[in-house]
Amino acid sequence: MIDWSDVVAPLVVAGGGILALLLDAFGTRRSWRRSGIVSFLALVAALVVLLSPSRPDGLQQALGVLVVGGTLLVVLAAAVMEHEDSMPPGELHFLLLVSASGGLSMVLARDLATLVVSLELLSLPSIALVGLRRGDVDAARGAWTFFVVSVVSTAVTLLGIAFVYGVSGTLVYDELALRLSASRAPAEVVGAAVVLTVVGLLFKLGAVPLHLWVPGTYRGASVPVAAYLSVVSKAGAAGALVLLLPDAFGLQGESWRPVVAVAAALTLVVGNLGAWVQDDVVGLLAWSSIAQAGFVLAPMAVLTTPGVASAPIRYLAVYALANLVAFGVVGLVRRRWGGTSMAHVAGLVRVEPWTGSALVLALLTLAGFPPAVIGLVAKYVVLEPLLDPRFGTPYAWLAVVVALNVVVGLVYYLRLVAVVVGPVGPRLAGSTVSPSPPRAVVVARTAVLVPAAALVVTSVQPDLLLSWIP
Amino acid sequence: MSAVVAAVLLPLLVGGGLVLSGGRVPGRVAALAGAATTVVSAALVVAAWAASGRGEVAGEVDAAWIEAIGARWHLGVDGISFPFVLMTLLLGLLCCVSLVDHAPAGDGPPSALVGLVLVVVGAALGVFSSLDLLLFFVFFELALVPMWFVVARWGDGEGRSRAATRFLVFTVTGSALMLAGFITVGRLAGSLQLTDIAVLRVLVTGPVGMFAAVTILLGLAVKTPVWPLHTWLPDAHGSAPTVGSVLLAGVFLKLGTYGLLRVWLAVVPQQAEVLAPALATFAVVGIVWSALACLRQTDLKRLVAFSSVGHMGFVVLAVASASPLGVSAAVLGSVAHGVVTGLLFFVAGALRRRYGATSWEALGRGLWLRTPRTAGVLAFAAIASLGLPGLAVFWGELLTLRALYEVGPVLGRPLAWTLLAVAALGVVLTSAYVAALLRRVLQGVPTPDDRDGELAGSDVPVVAVLVAATVVLGVAPGLVLGVVEPDLLAVLGGVR
Amino acid sequence: MSAVEVVFLVLAAVCVFSGLQAVTCDRLVHAALWFVLTLGSLAGTFLLLAAELLAWVQVLVYLGSVVVLLVFALMLTRAPTGSGSATFTRNRWLAAVIGTATSVGLGVLGWAGFGGQEIVSPTVGSPEVIGQVLFTEWVLPFEILSLVLLAALVGAIALSTGQRTVGDSGAADGDR
Amino acid sequence: MPLAWPLILSAVLFGIGVYGVLARRHAVLVLIGVEMMLAAVTLDLVAFDAWWGEPSHSGQVLSLFVIALAAAEIGLGLAIVLALYRATGTADVDDVPARERR
């Protein structure tokens, strides 16, 4: 029943996390280098395992690489927090890696029990990560909000799972697909059970209406942790949905499809309107990441066959790269110049040409605008299934909503771009306030430039990314 | 690499390099380099064109690009696009030349402005030579952000930032819808290649096809612009720097008209036939409305901007007739508008540099006597703009009216002739505002100003070239028509 | 009505009553104690539904540790424990409406789906039976669960130890 | 025993839990509300398990997991409450947690 070769990657990641914790705990002096290098190696090893050619399912593989690769970049970007005394390196790396292993096993889950346990393994450490800035009011508040929303949504998912179990008598995806439609219970009850399960997962993705934890949590957390939440945590939830919906609930589409479509539309609109009024870069990225979740959700409304499942994952991959770049740059700025307001990035391109240009590229990718062709292609990929005449285009309205939200997004992203390439503001003109050693800054800068380079390469040749996600 | 691909990429690369150089290149050097780039690009395109036969696609490249969604790296220049390409390169060259001496002040180094101009030119070339819908869209959008920066950073006046953002929001809204239309077409026809869809007549049908036709039309109508979607235009043109206005009017609007021919009429011909009467009606309303609006203007730049809506109305009317004559008229009208309006904006830019504004008060009266040569060029351009026989604009408008008179396959006789009558009224009104302009600025008792002076520096060659082009197009419209004619089927293949 | 059913109804009544007390009473510690009674009666219903192991786990884990933790937390936060110490938010009545609606909705769902069904002589979930399936079919989630507990433990320790004020070294006020 | 009985008891408990989460101001009492919701789910799972009587006992096993997860959640939750208390001097949370901060 279990293919144990699947479990190697999460095991390696979790083992690396535990090792990082132990090494740090027994070391004489708390240092980022020790636990950081162990985490780095464990994640690279997991990547190697995932990319080994023997693995069959391309979608799970792609999601796994997304989770592990994203965590890897977060670990590197977090190097900039060295010597930040309120951040203990051992615990940080342990929680990051254990949470990532939860994301991995969530993607590998083939039954609802594994899914929900993995979901908790993804969530609980990331909640702790948010609160980890010790003695910080915002961090504690952010963690509490995140905790309550997370736990309540888990309870709702569990309730849904209980009813799914009640009507079908099983928790295994493949059996569910057969037994749900043959159930003795009325179709409405089956539909309600399925919707409750899905709704709980939507909360985790940061979809409207339970999105309000996102801004406070992202701003309370340290920037690399916010990057982790916006990329890896989302990838786990979206990945689970993409596998769960067609595989287990494929024949119950009439019940969950409208829910997903409406949630996607609301998420797009509300996220974009929220981002529109932000004057803090992290706040803007937090709200825009809500909107971006809407882009990921939209094609799930027509998720029928595993073949279509590639659209959300392709979008997610592009979003992950761009968001990691954006958060990475903001993390650097926050550490070196002490803030994340618009004034702190004014003229960044002139002060730090490379990271500044990377930020511009990332923002254009998120907006979906050339020269960041890959961002545009991602939007195309999302719209395509919605407009496919084979499905009779019942969700053409959603396609129009998606298209119009591209416009809204473009305006606020461009406003930020204009600030970044504009005249140098007083903040950046002043000297840096960072206690981060130069080596840590170099590592963090690498964590920005590598995905930025990937964005450049895939903009020239999008197939490099797209063809790799089946 | 094909010469056409090189011609498209060269301005993009040089322009991108200049933008990224961050002011390390002196402005004059950058402008000269930009001019050289456009000349090289033009030489490449002309060479490719000369090497291919008539009715063929010159310099065609068809290589794998994004196989995952069926988009190909498919470029080439045919008779429809060749006039657009040459006009773009000519205007790009003249913009660069004008920047040698007259770079406007703005938030950024002059070399960056030259770079942005080159990127816009390269993107426009990409649009005109794309034979793949997604590639078309990528270039279509690529031109936007640099243009936004040109207006927002180097523009005039307080409202430039708002005008630039409004321009951006309007056009992006349109093009986002257009993308939805493109995707629908791609799914219905099973291909994104214009050559497959238009020439092999893979027809797009049903309500889904209508959805595609309407969304594509909306996107292009905003860009062109078709009344009543034009409201972004006057402010953007009015507040852009001279080169920005020239590129907006000369090149940007042509992305819309070219798109109407290439990716609307040719891709969704059946739906185009249904939508054409409405489109033609809007176009005619635009012609009259723009003439009336022009009568009320008190600023040269804004007057020229509003007049563009009318000129584009004629082009759209020609497209909507969906006849061979109409397509020829649309191409000719687009090119002529680019040349003449470019000339007007260059003159307006020279005046603005001198007097600080282009309103009637700032310009004063009696320009004939104060600066006869400048006044002469202005009068020439204004009269060309109203469609004087023997000058560029005349043929485009005449052929449009003739296409209506002869009644093409799409518009019925009563409608066509009604439209013809109203459009003719528009021509009369146009003469009225041009006459008003001449009387108000050129004639009257001179109000001498110590800032008076003739065109100087790089303005002289720029204006000379455009005057010559206006005359040549007016005397020998066959130069363009002969190029267009063999490839009419590429556009009209699907029309009954 | 069989004896089992009578006992179930009694336990259910205790469960609902104590549950309502737990969320409405106005003393913090009393709320925690009412909660103990809710969970205890719930454990009783587990026994009636033949979930033997589960009933004992419920008693051990919840009554033995969770509630103790809760009470400790109340003491650590030095919360006043007298009458009126457990206050309500402003949207209490809205909450009541939502809670009632949830109950009714779920009840209707259960009734509509499983109205006429009877539970007949279920197999007893003794420790042997559950242990058997747990370590054959459900090993993977079980292992993941152990990791969840470890992570929660480390997270909790990391959050509650090493109190240091922000502001030492260079991470000054600007580090916001 | 009718299957509907435990289901209805569970529905009532879940609703009580929802009320507790929304209406209580003290963080520990919010936690109790959450626990009540999870307990309700456990009861559902046990009832369905007894009804189906399938050999792999998915329902009871999952309830076992839920109890363990609830314990993990409460441990972490209490740690956050303590951190919150240390940072703000109170363990009262504002009206709806989600509305707490933008």
Give an account of the 3D structure.
- The complex is a heterotetramer of chains A (470), B (496), C (176) and D (102).
- Chain A has helices spanning 8-26, 32-51, 58-77, 89-108, 112-130, 137-168, 173-179, 187-205, 213-220, 223-249, 253-276, 281-297, 310-337, 342-345, 348-351, 353-367, 373-386, 396-421, 426-429, 438-460, 463-466.
- In chain A, 75% of the residues lie in helices and 0% in strands.
- Chain A has 21 helices and no strands.
- With 470 residues, chain A is mostly helical.
- Chain B has 496 residues and is mainly alpha-helical.
- Chain B has one domain (3-492).
- Chain B is 74% helix and 3% strand.
- In chain B, helix 3 (81-101) runs antiparallel to helix 20 (459-475).
- The model of chain B has no long low-confidence stretch (mean pLDDT 86).
- Among the domains of chain C are: 1-81, Up-down Bundle (Four Helix Bundle (Hemerythrin (Met), subunit A)); 126-160.
- Helices cover 69% and strands 0% of the residues of chain C.
- The longest helix of chain C is centred in the middle third of the chain and has 25 residues, at 52-76.
- Mean pLDDT of chain C is 81; it is low at 163-176.
- Chain D is an all-alpha fold.
- Chain D has a single domain, classed as Helix Hairpins (Orthogonal Bundle).
- Chain D is built from three helices and no strands.
- In chain D, helix 2 runs antiparallel to helix 3.
- Chain D is elongated and about 50 Å long.
- Chain D starts with a helix and ends in a 14-residue tail after the last helix.
- Residues 95-102 of chain D have low confidence and may be disordered.
- At the C-D interface, helix 1, helix 2, helix 3, helix 4 and helix 5 of C face helix 1, helix 2 and helix 3 of D.
Structure summary:
Chain B has 496 residues and is mainly alpha-helical. Chain B has helices at residues 3-20, 27-51, 81-101, 110-129, 133-142, 144-154, 160-189, 194-199, 206-223, 233-239, 242-265, 269-295, 300-321, 324-355, 360-363, 367-370, 372-386, 392-406, 413-442, 459-475, 478-484, 488-492; strands at 58-66, 71-77.
